[in-house]
Every structure is written in C-alpha cells, then in structure tokens.
Amino acid sequence: MKEVAILIHEDAVFSTVSGAMDMLIHTNRLFHESGKPMPFKITLVGEGNENAYLHNPEPYVGYSSITNVATPGLVIVPAFYGDRSVTLQKHKALINWVSNMNKKGAEVASLCSGSYFLAEAGLLAGRSCTSHWFDKDDITSRYPDVNFLSDKVMTDDRGIYTSGGAFSSLNLVLYLIDKFCGRDVGIWASKMFSLDMDRTSQSHFAVFMGQHQHKDNEILKAQQYIEQNHQQQLNIDEIADHTNMSKRNFIRRFKKATQNTPFEYLQRVKIESAKKALEKGAQNINILMYDAGYNDIKTFREVFKKITGLTPQDYRRKYSRDVPELEGVDVYHSIN
Q1: By the 8 A CB rule, do 284 and 292 touch?
Q2: Which of the four pLDDT bands, split at 50, 70 and 90, describes residue 56?
Q3: Is the pLDDT reported for residue 157 higher than 80?
C-alpha cells in the first residue's frame, strides 16, 4: 500500500486537493470492490491538529498534522492562491516539512503552482519541472537552476513529479495511478475520469502576454515597436536602431529583460497574432500567414507547431468558435 500525504492549507486551490483525492479514492474503491487490498492510504496533512479546510470522506481519507504524520511514500503538493513571495514565506514550515520528507525517502509531486513549494524546498535544483505556463518567467527568474519545461503536462525526474496548469494537473495523478497500480488500472482510470493518457503538451494553451514585467524602458519601447509592426519584415538591426543601441548591446539587454532573444520574441508575437486569427475562424491559412508577417508557408507551419504543439489547421479545429467579438476591446493589449 502506497501511503500518500496530500498537503492542505488555507491558501491551497482546493480543486487540486479534491481532484487528486477523488481519483485516488475511486481507485481504492475499484480494488476494494474486486476483493483486493487497496493500493493507497490517503492522508490530508497540514499544520493544525484538525482539518479545518476540506471534508475528508472516511474511511478512505484521514488527517494528520505535520508533526505527527509518519514518513509517507508520496507527498502531493497542491496549487495555491495569492502572491508567490508572501505565500511561500507564510508556509515556510510546510515547505521545510516537504523537504524533510523527501530526505527521509518520500517521493514528491506538485500540482500546477505547487511546484513553487518544491523549488523553495530545494527539490527542483538541477531537475526538469513544469507548472502553469503562466509561471514560466517568474519561476525561471526565481530559480535559475531549474530546467523549466513550460510545454510539458507533467515531468518525472528521479522521484520528483510536477504537473502543468490548472486541471491538466489531474493528468499527473492519472500517471501516478498508472505507475503504481499498473497499466490496466491506468487505462481504467483514464476512462473513468475522461482523461487522455497520451496528452503530453500544454503549449497550445499558453497565451503570450508580452513579458512586460521589467523596468528597462528602452526594451519596453522595442517590444512595443515589435508588437505594432510584427506583420512587416522586421530585422534585429532595424529594431536595435529604433532604440538607439548597438545590435550586440540590444540583444544582451533584451534577453536579460524578457528571457527571450529579440528574434524569439518577434516569432512569439507573430504566432500569437496568428492564433487570435484562427480562434476567430480564419479559413485561409496563406492570408493569415501574410498578415502575421510570414512569406513562407513551410516556415510558418514549423514555427507555429514548435510554439503551440499543433499545426495551424489543428489549432483552428480545436479553438475556432463562432462568437461575436467584443466591441472596442483590443484582446492582445488588454492582457498586457
């Protein structure tokens, strides 16, 4: 039996707690109804002596404080709300507990932004991880020794597991059920919870929001120039001239401010423009390609798939909806 401790606290996103708990409970019930020993012992774990946050359905789930719980086989850390720095400082005791459990042999899994707890605990140094795609810039800035894979739905690196954003984190729970209970049970869980076992990428969910959270005014000026003129045949020399910088200095400062090279940034702006057109139902890929600033259909498709994980046609099929546009709203700049 795998002893699973699910962390719980007042800032936790309870849907990630209850989602993981529900999947493990139903897997236990499958075994119980088949006359087999249940594979998981599930315990909610927090700082207090009592669970004041979430109903735990006995007899399948218990509760324990971090001072009383025995070393589990697996610790699951949920996503959390709130300012990252404030919340991490507030729950330092829980983070230290996660670190200590790992030192004693427990594997650790994070759901969505729960990866911050793992990084603070020192468990992601030199490891690959993922989280919500929105967290990429902040995590790579805070923890430069972490190999952050923003396109991945989940990672498994030497007993440390991380998952992608929001409800995609349930794909990690499915993966763990499959890993610990066998492929037949994994397939059953995939069908029971309507989760795709083969889903590996979350990159097509990402919304490129411009990476404006820095204080380099000259680079902000360059970003604005790129966003307003991305459909033209821009080159790096031209953009550097616009900021009155040498090309070498411009590239260095741009990368430091945005975590992207100017060329990478230009490509992401172009593809974001193409995504918006596809979401609005654009039918002619060639026209859309020219409007986004590309002249070669092969290059456009290759870059689009590299960034989103989907071809333009597949992206349109997945996200195109016949919905009215909001009058007066500039979708791209309203999110910056």
Answers
A1: no
A2: low
A3: yes
- Chain centroid to Cα 19, Å, comes to 17
Q: Mind listing the pLDDT tens digit for each residue in 188-204?
A: 999 999 888 776 665 55
- Count CB-CB contacts under 10 A for residue 90: 16
Left, alpha or beta for 281 (phi > 0: left; psi -120 to 50: alpha)?
Answer: left
Burial-class residue 184 by CB neighbours within 10 Å (0-12, 13-18, 19+). Answer: exposed
Q: Structure tokens of 239? A: 């953009």
Query: What angle (nearest 5°) sits at the alpha carbon of residue 67, between those of residues 66 and 73?
Result: 55
**Could you state, in order of their start, the residue ranges of all structural domains in the chain?**
2-205, 217-334
Annotation: CATH topology of 2-205: Rossmann fold (3.40.50)
Q: Are 206 and 272 in contact (CB under 8 A)?
A: no
Tell me the C-alpha distance between 307 and 212, whole Å: 19
Other residues' Cβ atoms within 10 Å of the Cβ of residue 249:
12
User: Using CB atoms within 10 A of its CB, is residue 256 exposed (0-12), middle (13-18) or buried (19+)?
Assistant: exposed
DSSP state string for 229-287: HTTS---HHHHHHHTT--HHHHHHHHHHHHSS-HHHHHHHHHHHHHHHHHHTT---HHH
148 bridge partner residues: 129
Pick the CATH number of 217-334 from 3.40.1650.10, 2.130.10.10, 1.10.10.10, 1.10.10.60: 1.10.10.60
Q: Write the pLDDT tens digit of every residue in 59-114.
A: 678 999 999 999 999 999 999 999 999 999 999 999 999 999 999 999 999 999 99
Q: Strand 154-157's sheet: what is its strand order?
A: 61-65, 40-46, 2-7, 74-77, 107-110, 160-163, 154-157
Contact status, residue 20 vs residue 43, Cβ threshold 8 Å: no
Distance, in Å, from the CA atom of 218 to the CA atom of 233, rounded to the nearest integer, reads 21
